[in-house]
Each structure stands twice: as structure tokens, then as C-alpha cells.
Design a protein that fits this description.
This is Pentapeptide repeat-containing protein. It comes from Cohnella endophytica. This protein has no helices and three strands. It is low in regular secondary structure. Strands 1-3-2 form a three-stranded antiparallel sheet, with no helix packed on it. It starts with 15 loop residues before the first strand and ends in a 12-residue tail after the last strand.
């Protein structure tokens, strides 16, 4: 990943959106991806529709040592864990992309035996993803591997690698403290009608 750079598509923002967050953790550019802060009870103070697990100063998940996904109730609130939601929500705050996220443990080939999909690798004590060196969040079809990208993914793919559920990918590359060292952004890359992705290339 050393020396990575973005090749920006010539298409306008409807194909490539750089989503920046303000100091509260709210996404100023879009309304469907938010990094929320927690109070001492691990409740999301900022939003009821996007919850990200509490991190220490190096953005390491102190609670679980990995990323946790849980089932949503009808309001879009994470009733199981209150600690990780990352998805595309409708105007009510309900997760229409996946309707749930799951706590996954991997076998030796990094396949999630619990959920039959590849979700999140385990982090070491520094908060770095020791299994894959990047953050992966995706639900895949039978191949269970995204052949089009090797970075942060939030999408449901069909057999061609096209995101049939959300029509977008969330891409970012993290350094050892899980910060996006390339852009300081989360990159939301949309697909055109042909399925060609207008995304950064690492």
C-alpha cells in the first residue's frame, strides 16, 4: 500500500464524493455516513441511525478488540450492542442496506463461519488490522471476496462485483492507527449504469 495515490474519475460528484466530517463527527457532505460519539453508557449522543464503536485515542475499539455489528430494531437503532452501525440509512434512520451487521470471528482463511460472509478482521493492541492491513466491511455473494478493490468496503455485491444493494462503495485506507492517511476523508464511490466504478485506485 506504500505510495498509494488516488486516480480521480473524470465524472462529477455524483460518481465520486469525498465525505468530510465536522468536529462533532457528523458528515457535512452526506447524511448517510456519520461517525458518532458515545456517552459513558455507550449510547450514541449524536445520531440514532449510525453508531461506531467507542475508540481510545488511537481509534482502537476498547470494548471488543474488533469491530462489532448488530441487529437493528425498526427505528434503525442498534438494539444488540449500541456500538457499531455502518450502513446506508433511509430518512427514518433505518438501515436499508443490510438491516443488520454481525459480530464475526474468522477461521484461518478469514472466512466468517458465523455469518457466511467476509466482514471484519481482528485488530491488534494498536488498533491495526493484523489480518488484512485494512478495514473490510461487506456482504458478498458466493465468491465472498471483492475482486474490484482492496480497501474499505461497504456494499453488497452480485456475482459481477457490482453493488446491487447500495450502488456505492465506501473506500478508505488506514494507517496503523486506523486513520485515513491518504486523504483524511472517507471516499464514497458511486457506480454508473454499466456497473463501472468511478473509484480511487490504490
Amino acid at each position: 500500500m506504500a505510495g498509494s495515490s488516488f486516480v480521480i474519475a473524470r465524472k462529477p460528484l455524483n460518481y465520486l464524493v469525498l465525505a468530510h466530517f465536522d468536529e462533532t463527527g457528523f458528515c457535512e457532505t452526506t447524511n448517510y455516513l456519520v461517525l458518532a460519539r458515545f456517552d459513558e453508557t455507550r449510547f450514541c449522543q449524536t445520531t440514532n441511525y449510525l453508531v461506531l464503536a467507542q475508540f481510545d485515542d488511537i481509534r482502537f475499539c476498547e470494548t471488543t478488540n474488533c469491530l462489532i455489528l448488530a441487529h437493528f430494531d425498526e427505528t434503525g437503532f442498534c438494539q444488540t450492542t449500541n456500538c457499531l452501525i455502518l450502513a446506508h440509512f433511509d430518512e427514518t434512520g433505518f438501515c436499508k442496506t443490510t438491516n443488520y451487521l454481525v459480530l464475526a470471528q474468522f477461521d484461518d482463511i478469514r472466512f466468517c463461519e458465523t455469518t457466511n460472509c467476509l466482514i471484519l478482521a481482528h485488530f491488534d493492541e494498536t488498533g491495526f488490522c493484523q489480518t488484512t492491513n485494512y478495514l473490510v466491511l461487506a456482504q458478498f455473494e458466493d465468491i465472498r471476496f471483492c475482486e474490484t478493490t482492496n480497501s474499505l468496503i461497504l456494499a453488497h455485491f452480485d456475482e459481477t462485483g457490482f453493488c446491487e444493494t447500495t450502488n456505492c462503495l465506501v473506500l478508505a485506507h488506514f494507517d496503523e492507527i486506523r486513520f485515513c492517511k491518504t486523504t483524511n476523508y472517507l471516499v464514497l464511490a458511486h457506480f454508473d449504469d454499466s456497473g463501472d466504478q468511478r473509484t480511487p485506485h490504490f
